[in-house]
Here is the input.
Amino acid sequence: MAALKDSSAWPELTTASVSRGRDNYARLGVLRTKPGRADAPAVLSMSCSDKIARWSVLGVQGALASDMVPEPIYIDAIVIGEVDHSMRDIVEADCDRALHGRLANLPNLPEGLRSSKPKVHFTDTPFEHSRSVLNATSSSNDSVCWVADSSAGHEVLINGIRRGISPKHRANGRFKPALSKASLFALYAGISSDMGRAFDPTRTYAEEKQKRTRYNAAKDALLGPEGPFSGWLGCRGSQREEFNSAGSLINSTVLRSSTSHDV
Here is the structure.
C-alpha cells in the first residue's frame, strides 16, 4: 500500500475531518471510516489503524474496566503477514506513524496514561484462514466468538446476531451475543458484586462509563474538540447506551444498529 503514495502536496486537513475509506489516500494522518470500497454502504465504524491508534492511548480495556486494572492494557506487538521483504521497512515506518507517531506528543493525558508504541513484526507463515489461502472473493458476514477459559462454548454471529435467531428477536435480551454491550455490562455488574464494590443497578451503561474520570479525561484529550481525533464518529451520548445492567432500555425507543466499539 505504501507504494501507492505520491509526493503531491495535499492541503492540511483539520482534526475534525474524516475521509471515506481510501478517498484521498495520500493524505496521511486523516481519520478514515470503513469500508475502503467507495461502492459499499457508508458506516460509522472507523478504520482498523485508527482504532489501534486510539487503543494505544486509552487501552483496549475500555471505560468500564478501566478502574478494575492498575493501568491501561496496551497492545505490545502486532504481527503482519504477506508483506514482501523489500517493503517491510516502509510498512514498519507507516505503522509507526499511523499507530503511534501521530499521537506521540499528545498533551493533557492523566497520570498513568501515555501514547504506547506497539512493536511491529512480520511473518512469512501464511495465515491459514486468510483470503489468499482460501481464495475467497468476498468477505464473510459470519464471525465466531469464544472465550478461552469459558465453559459456555462459542457463538456464531451473522451481522452481529447469533446464528439461528430471527431478526425480529434480536432485541430480546435472552438472545443477546456475549460480546454485546448489554452482556458486557451485566458481566461488569457481576464482577463488581464479587469484588464487594458498590454498584447501582438503576444506573445506565452510559452513566456508569461517565464515572471513569481518568479514562474520560484521556478520552477527551484524544477525541475532544481540541484533540487530534476530534472527528471520531460513534454513538457517544446516544440512546444506544441508555440501558441498565439487566439489559432493559431506559428509553422505549429500540434502535436497530450500533457501530461504536467503545466499551
About this structure: The CA atoms of residues 148 and 154 lie 9 Å apart.
